[in-house]
Specification:
Radius of gyration: 29 Å
Number of strands: 0
Organism: Mycolicibacterium arabiense
Strand content: under 5%
Keywords: Membrane, Transmembrane, Transmembrane helix
Helix content: over 70%
Number of domains: 1
Pfam family, one: DUF3618
Low-confidence stretches: none
Protein name: Membrane protein
Mean pLDDT: 91
InterPro entries: DUF3618
């Protein structure tokens, strides 16, 4: 193994430390629970806003409403 200059070794260590810090920061951003919750919420809203899903939910709501009204009248 070749002998390396101490200054070169220090630069390599500093560079590796900076890369590690950058990686840890990126992981902290990706694993942030608030960001994950916001992403899931946005995806759910986008899914529900699709015309087919919105129509299906409206139809399901109408069926539930009819069932509830019938039950209330039978009492």
């Amino acid at each position: 193994m070749a002998d390396r200059d101490p200054d070169t070794i220090k630069r390599d260590i500093d560079q590796a430390r900076d890369q590690l810090a950058s990686t840890v920061d990126a992981l902290a951003v990706r694993a942030n629970p608030r960001r994950i919750a916001d992403d899931v919420k946005a995806a759910a809203i986008d899914f529900v806003k699709k015309p087919a899903v919105a129509a299906s939910l409206a139809g399901l709501g109408a069926v539930v409403l009819v069932v509830l009204v019938k039950r209330a009248r039978n009492r």
